[in-house]
From TrEMBL:
This is Acyl-CoA dehydrogenase. It holds the Pfam family Acyl-CoA_dh_N. The keyword Cytoplasm does not apply. Its cofactor is FAD. One of its GO terms (molecular function) is acyl-CoA dehydrogenase activity. Residues 124-226 form the Acyl-CoA oxidase/dehydrogenase middle domain. Residues 238-369 form the Acyl-CoA dehydrogenase/oxidase C-terminal domain. Belongs to the acyl-CoA dehydrogenase family. Keywords: FAD, Flavoprotein, Oxidoreductase. Residues 9-120 form the Acyl-CoA dehydrogenase/oxidase N-terminal domain. One of its GO terms (biological process) is butyrate catabolic process. Signal peptide: none annotated. It comes from Actinoallomurus bryophytorum. It comes from the Bacteria.
Amino acid sequence: MDFDLPESAVAVRDGVAAIGARHGLDYWDRCDAEKRWPEEVWRELADGGWLGLAVPEEYGGGGQGLLELAVAAETLAGSGAGAASSFLYLLTPAFGALTIARHGTELQKNALLPALAAGETETCFAITEPDAGSNAINISTQARRDGDDFVVTGQKIWISGVERARYMVLVTRTIPAAEAKPRLNGFTILLIDIEEAVAEGTLTYRPIPKLGTNTVASNMVFLDGVRVPVANVIGEVDQGFAVLWDILNPERIIAAAGAVGCGELALRVAVDYAKERAPFGRPIGANQAVAFPLAQVSAQVELARLMTYKAAWLWDAHRPCGAEANIAKLTAAEAAWQAADRMFQAHGGMAYSLEYPVARLFRDARIGKSIPVAEELILAHIAQHELGLPKSY
């Protein structure tokens, strides 16, 4: 077994770290306070070729894989961005480029991958619905065939990045859930031209005020007769769940990588403060009540990193990785939250001061325990599918 990162991943880590070093905690604090996309970082990542890592070389990308994307997301998060920076590697590099590179038609690849690799075209992903939540099987957004088009009607919620994206990777039902046999049949993944649909008045969206991850807006999306050419189907009609697994597992892995970076960052902020703060004549970090919890978090972060890399490696090898992706997301989210909590505690009352990055990192770390899948569902999946216990839901 070889636990050394491949040279390609080391180069990614070093390249993204150089960008991160120019845009530290203060930069991300400002972006969060102003609720704006980190455009400067996005452009530097694009110009350096760090967005198209998983795009094949013949389409202008780096010809690498999900492992390199995960390393990039982890490095960016750890540089000062925190967990919110995961969206820079989820929305376009993973949801768009990675999906089309593996499942797109040759026409779709030629039309989209070069611009996605360059960061010139952006994408978002839409699956969650108000009445379905985490139960993706029961989504009701309908795509009805009409000649050479599908006509889409429905609603989506918590869709991040719509306001920037040109295309939406949309999960629809072409067979209603009640009629699908087996129940995973009847899903069709469509690529929607957002700009065109907005201009026609068939797609609208509304931002959702939220607690954290303020560098990207999340939205309610309303689809009212959006026409989508059949040529924009990703994968096969009615068989979209095969594509969906290759979206959801990378989503978990990138989210886990961002959480690992966030945990490492929160730990570093806590340790630096614990070394300097000395209200009783010695640094508070000399006290075991402060030091031991931080040491415990350090171990948790390292374990989560190993599972995240393993899950990404399995996906790149076209091997089953569902259990590993779930475990990576579960453990990384918990490590990030524990790191943020101990960072908060180490700062005492100063944690409430917005002069420190504690509040931002604390807010953004918490969401990982709930999205992209709640930890309770992951535990239920492990109990049923890994331990063989009776189904609990």
